[in-house]
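Sharing a chain and its predicted structure for anyone who wants a worked example. Both blocks are below, sequence first, tokens second.
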Amino acid sequence: MSEQLGILGTGHLATYVVTGLRNAGDNRPILLAPRNRERALHLQQEQACEIAKDNQQVVDQCPILLLAVRPAQVDALLKELSFKPGQLIISCVAGVPLRELSNAVAPTEVVRTMPLACAEVGSGAVPLYPAHPKANELLGRLGKLLAFDSEAQFELAATAACMNGWVYAFLDELSGWLAKQGLTDAQARDLVTHSVLGAADLAAAKPELSLRSICDSIATEGTFTRLGLDTLERQKAFRPWQEACQQIKDALDK
């Protein structure tokens, strides 16, 4: 059986990871911190987890720890805990650098990740810095594991994680328009989600091609696809996405 996983911070990120592991057939014992009792009870009932009496029990009992609290809570949480050599902490805390985390929990090893909501279904990017055998094995069950060579690269992946969340709002705009034109809500949702899923699958299947070259091979001169693309580019419709990404990057760099 795989090593026991302990979770410090039983919120949304923890739920993504636990659900994704269980859906991938990972039946390792998982021990939850008691904070956020309602969510912990849900995971206990639905995903066969246990709930610890306190945070220190999680640390004492588990060789692998998922740190999934908000950045403002990290310092106070780590100061009250005693860690052991040989443990691995997988931090999901945005914007808190590896050196700061490592100093707070020495001599415990620390890596960083940023799971997406789609980790629940074993899909999407799973950024990791630095690579670590135990982290690779665990996180690789949640989607496409991307181990980065530097923390600067990882921070860009964290920006992309925010972008992933915005996509749902974009899909909602498109499906809403289609529904107003006469499709049912279900038809519009399926049409939009599977169209985008197909585009992503094609791009993943052809890594030798740039994303722009795939676009241009479809949106050829005289096609309706090109007509729509030209309209979007005249309106500089993609620029706000870059600006939003830059805003997130600047916030993470502070």
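Comments welcome. DSSP finds eleven helices and eight strands in the chain.
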